[in-house]
Amino acid sequence: MSNQILRLGKETLIYGASTVAARLFNFFLVPFYTYYLVAADYGVAATVFAFMALTNIVYQYGMDQAYLRFAAESDGRDAFSTPFIAVACSAVLLSAAVCLLSPLIAGALGIGARHAYLIQISAAVMALDSLNIVPFAKLRYTHRAWYFVGVRTLSILVNVAGNVLALAYFKAGIAGIFAAGIAASLTSLVLLLPVIKEEFLPRFNTALFARMFKFSWPFIPAGMASIMVNVIDKPLLSHLSGLANVGIYQANFKIGVFMMLVVSMFDQAWRPFFIQRAGEAGHKELFAKILTWFASAAGWVFLSLALLMPAVIQTPVFGKHLISPAYWGGMGIIKPVLAGYFFYGLYINFMVAPVLTKRTGALMWITLAGALASACANIILVPRVGITGAGWAVFISYFMMAALLFAFLQKTYPVKYEYGRLLFIAAVITAALGADRLLGGAPTPAAMGFKILLLLLYPAVVLPVIRK
């Protein structure tokens, strides 16, 4: 069992290299945006990115997951070519529709029809991104992690360089941000051409596509609802609180990227891992042990960010802050957003049930419940406590999704998790947060030293318990 966990850990770190690079580079664009864009323009960009994240689900409709699930059950090249052709054809149709309806979409998002051109540019980015998903899934399925990392990293560098040039040199404004996205997506597609050439056949297996689509279509509402949990706050905030507050919220929301990257790193390796080991003896005990190790590692990352990031934000380096002081009003959202992503990591662990039982329709209802909880929490909390309410809405929605998927798992594919150890980890995290709260005050050297001491004590306390 330990060898299996080590292999998962190794692949998590390899896939994580690109995920970390993506999240870190995107995060380091945040201070760049806060100094080169006014809050309202940043709010427009954040709202369009939210639209893209949601619409990408429709563009891709779970075909990467379908490939991973059916690659071993059918001719490998058919399993690749069929979803690739399907996604390519639908991307053309969807992009045409998005461009045609762009003024209406921009108005509905609260950014005004004058920004319809951004919706049109985003349609090109989404079409290119959809062409990359099946080749990336092929790399994951065949454990070609370093190839995966190389492509992702180069496309990230292109995106970051494009953003810097567009804003600082060409003064292109928010349009330049999305133009850089086109360049990055094209870079990925070019680098993935050898994979496409290796696997692609000019034929479409209708029967196989019907089976794939039956498996994957629930990922559309489920994925949209899941993304809505993460992005519905932006258009709601634009209507409830104004675009300037969306920009302030987004700048602080991005701190959660460090927590999300841990979850994303794990997710990239976890899904093919549990699919390929589901038939092995003792696999449920393995899954239970993995949840314990994930919770302990993610818990430490959560504590590190929750305790240290507010001080890091307010500490100048060479006369500049990580985030412009004009955006500090949103720091209250950091802890609830980080906690929400922690529970999203638990949700990813529980994905074994719907995937292995092929009952992916349950994901639709669970994530719709999460999206509804997010919308209601935003509507109720934002008018009362401002943008901090949007941060708590993220936590509420992910907590609900994890709880509902856990209940589904125990009913359909029961796994006996190590509840005692999980409760111990939760108790240690809660105690550390409580001790930090009692300390309170400004980020003095003594306070920072105490926070660091808490973080050093965490592994010393937790590891002996989870190793037993």
Describe the structure in your own words.
By secondary structure, this protein is mainly alpha-helical. It has 2 domains: 1-27 and 217-468, no CATH class; 62-216, no CATH class. 82% of the residues lie in helices and 0% in strands. It has 21 helices and no strands. The two termini are 14 Å apart.
List the helices and strands and how they pair.
Layout: H1 2-36, H2 39-60, H3 63-70, H4 76-100, H5 102-109, H6 116-141, H7 145-169, H8 174-191, H9 193-199, H10 206-216, H11 219-231, H12 233-240, H13 243-253, H14 257-277, H15 283-314, H16 334-349, H17 352-356, H18 361-385, H19 387-412, H20 419-439, H21 445-466
Q: How much β-strand is present in the residues?
A: under 5%
User: Whole-Å distance between the termini?
Assistant: 14 Å
The total domain count is 2
Q: Which stretches are low in confidence, meaning pLDDT under 50 for 5 or more residues running?
A: none
Number of helices: 21
Return the average pLDDT rounded to an integer.
85
**How many DSSP E strands?**
0
> How does the overall form come out from the CA principal axes?
globular
Order of helices and strands: HHHHHHHHHHHHHHHHHHHHH
Largest sheet data:
none
Helix % is: over 70%
> How does the helix and strand content classify structurally?
mainly alpha
Radius of gyration: 22 Å
